[in-house]
Write a structure and sequence with these properties.
The chain is mostly beta strands and about 775 residues long. Helix content is about 0%, strand content about 45%. It is built from one helix and 69 strands. Strands 2, 3, 6, 7, 11, 14, 17 and 18 form an eight-stranded mixed beta sheet that branches. It is elongated. The termini are far apart. The relative contact order is 0.06. InterPro entries: T9SS_type_B. This is Gliding motility-associated C-terminal domain-containing protein.
Amino acid sequence: MHLYFDNAVRSATAQDNGIKVGIFRKRDNFLMRTLTLFTADLAGRPFVYSNAACATNQGLNITDITFSENINLNPDEYNDAQGYYLTYDRCCRNAANNISNPANTGMLFYLEFPALKINGVDFVNSSPEFTTPNGEYICKGKPFRFDNSATDADGDQLRYSFVTPYRGFSVGGNNINNPIGSSSIPLINWNSGYSATNAIPAESPGMKIDNQGIMTLTATELGLFVYSVMVEEIRNGVVIGVSRRDFQLKVIDCFDAPAKPDIFKDLSPIKTHTVTIDFCDYGFVEIATEINTRYNYQWQKNNVNLVNENRYKIRINEPGKYTVIIGYNTGCSESTTSDETIVSQVAGEQFVINPDEKKACLDEIPIKLSIQKQNGSAFSPSDYSYQWTRNGFDIPNNNSHILEATLSGDYLGRMKQIGGVCEYEPSSKVTIYALPDALITNTISKKVICDTDTIPLVANLGYNLKYDWFKDDVSIKKSADNTLTVLKSGIYKVLVTDDNGCKKMSDTLKLTVNPLTPIKFDTIYPFCGTTNLKVNLLNYVSPYDATKAKFIGRGVNGTTFEPLIYGYAPITYQYTNGFGCVSKLNRITFVDLIPKVLLGNDQIIFKGDTITLKSITSGGFDNNLIYEWSPTNGLNNPSIASPIASPSITTEYVLKVKSSTSSCTNSDNILVKVKAKIIVPTGFTPNQDNVNDVWELEGIEEYPNAEVKIYNRWGNEIFSTLSYRSNPFNGRIDNVSLPAATYYYVIKADADIRPITGYLTIVR
């Protein structure tokens, strides 16, 4: 469906898309189905006006918006003998002079088609299709001719007539959302004096339309006029289909047209109208009319305005009947159409330019372009004259079938047959890309460095560039990274490649990396204490040269290390060779405090007892000490400062204290003497019954020189012995039994044990 949209009034928007069409059965106006048509281009295809300047001046700006949808209809459902019709109803119309209240008058699009199956047989048919109209206006009082014809793919007879346009059911600016079928669709209301056959007032014999759909008239009134053409499709004398088209034309005042133009072959020295012109297959011919700056031009092929063909000449590569319409380019004049020139096509040859497209880099020019036959067969270049153009401009001094191109552009090789009619213009597109920049920046501006130092090189940045770095002409790094860190002597450069494949090599940079002298600096193990400590550092390094080497660090004096304080001390050995390159090695010396440890006096315990071995310790740079007791026998934990000891025999314990940082150590010892325990009973019964008749001192046998003394209540010594094992106390003195009483005793086992004292009781 074609909607001729007047852009002078408003522009089409999204709400103008998705139109709803109804299919109705003609016999009873039954709605068979609806469908929605869409357009992919709401801007539409602009009408081509014969005089574009006048059309613009008159506000004529019509576009053809085409809506479509593919559907399948079942012939068994669409078999009614009276046929079917489609409608689309919308509001409203332009301010036409011949319609009553056009702003509230709708328009209805209408097409009839026959049954899809007749007498049980599928009926094949194509509805007639109106040809796209030219953009025209009517000059008042001037004969006017307009093509309203249609074509029919089946070759059915077509009959044309003027009819009153349908108004439809949409009024007051409201569109009909759901299509309405009717046997009496409302028509527009003509203003007084107008009718279907007098929609545009004209001189006698008025508006006429012939059997080819050509409308003729000589208008007598100015204004904008709507009319409608109906085309009937006739087969075997029966009307099987109908299609209607509403259209509008504007009548304006025009001044006289220019004289009828002649068409001649361009560049021909004889400028007389040419009735027939030949062009060769695969070639072209140019025809022209007189050039005049006061004229507008519009070329036609077979009476159809050609889009964008509005210069004084036209290039033709299709056969047909060509005319040119001219009018003045100021104001609105009547247009004048030339006589027809029939352009025919004769046999020709196909030529191409090799290459037909070439992309190259600037360092690859010139690009050789050569005209040759497409099939590669030989031809005689001397049979043609040549004129090369680039981007539409002639290239001087190039009458050859070969051209060396040095610039980007669209190249045409126009070749004209000498003594013949053939003209060809093969083409080639040449794109010459500039070379990328290839620049290296030495970011530290040093060309000479020492080993372990670096020279950062940076190449220029750019879109999608790739870099190939070279050292001494050997590729060493390919990547999108524009940086390189130089570590070795050499001659450096970079090849830069852009995304067109164009390459450029940078200038070279000669860079020198001098070696360092290998040096040795042995480990300096920790020292314990600073007293009289002098370390000769020469014993730790090699090589050494007093003019090139030096030591740096706290406590360093020349080649001697003399620490004054404890802790860590970094020392650097620095050696400067003949290149001025400095080798450095660092060592950390450590001077630690010697730990202090004190265990105190020796200790005595009785067998089976325990004792805590208390130590007093300090020292070490960070006071983090490691404890190690030996022997470990009888100790609950030999790795703590004060373990619990329970030796079974007299044992000398040694505590070794070590700094966890430096392993500096110190030690002390303690003797733990283990003595037998003397068990002293509190009494006995010397009654001569051979039971408990003697005061038994268990363990006294371990002390052969033990002194035992017993005193009575008045402090008189009643018993004394230095050999108690052989002379135990039996409660008698001089064979006289002592009375039952409590006595005081003193036992001196040996010099290491305090005297044991207490009271015993003689029981009788």
